[in-house]
Write a structure and sequence with these properties.
The protein is α/β, with parallel strands linked by helices. The protein has two domains: 64 residues, Signal recognition particle alu RNA binding heterodimer, srp9/1; 71 residues, Signal recognition particle alu RNA binding heterodimer, srp9/1, CATH 3.30.720. The protein is 23% helix and 39% strand. The protein is built from three helices and eight strands; from the N terminus they run βαββββαβββα. The chain has a four-stranded mixed beta sheet with strand order 1-4-3-2, with helices on one face. Strands 5-8-7-6 form a four-stranded mixed beta sheet, with helices on one face. A hairpin with a 2-residue loop joins strand 3 and strand 4. The termini are far apart. InterPro entries: Glyas_Bleomycin-R_OHBP_Dase, Glyas_Fos-R_dOase_dom, VOC_core.
C-alpha cells in the first residue's frame, strides 16, 4: 500500500487575501492557483515549511468553515507576533503550559485558528498527566 498523505483544504471568503496573509504572517510560499470564470479561486496551494495546504473560495457547495492547525515552531513568541502584526487576533495568549510547551492560539482574519506551539520540556506521557492533574482547573 502506498503511504497516505493528508493535505488540508481551507475554505474561506477571499482565498487570495488569505494566501497573502499567510505569506506575510508565516512566510508561506504560494503555489498553483486556478480560478473559475467568475474569478473565484477553485483551487490553490501554498507551502508552510514542509507542509502543503490547499485553499479555495467559499461557494454554494463549500461554505467558509473554520479549522484548527498546530504550528510547531522554534520561537512561539515571534510567530505569534507575526500573526498578530498581519491581522490575527489572540484567542489564548502564548504562555508556558504544564505539558511542556509554550503555546497559544490565534484566529486569522478568515476564521482559521492557529495553535502556535514551541516545545520547552521533553516530558514523558506520565509526567504530562501528573502536571495536568496538579494544575488548578
Amino acid at each position: 500500500m502506498n503511504e497516505i498523505t493528508v493535505t488540508p483544504k481551507l475554505v474561506v471568503d477571499s482565498a487570495d487575501r488569505a494566501i497573502d496573509f499567510y505569506r506575510r504572517a508565516l512566510s508561506a510560499e504560494p503555489g498553483v492557483r486556478y480560478a473559475g470564470p467568475d474569478g473565484r479561486v477553485v483551487y490553490a496551494e501554498f507551502r508552510l515549511g514542509a507542509s502543503t495546504l490547499s485553499i479555495k473560495d467559499a461557494d454554494e457547495h463549500d461554505p467558509a468553515a473554520g479549522a484548527l492547525f498546530t504550528l510547531d515552531v522554534p520561537d512561539a513568541n515571534a510567530v505569534g507576533a507575526a500573526l498578530e502584526q498581519a491581522g490575527a487576533t489572540v484567542v489564548f495568549p502564548i504562555d508556558d503550559q504544564p505539558y511542556g510547551l509554550r503555546q497559544g492560539r490565534l484566529r486569522d482574519p478568515f476564521g482559521i485558528q492557529w495553535i502556535v506551539s514551541q516545545q520547552t520540556d521533553d516530558l514523558s506521557p506520565d509526567e504530562v498527566q501528573r502536571r495536568l492533574d496538579s494544575t488548578p482547573g
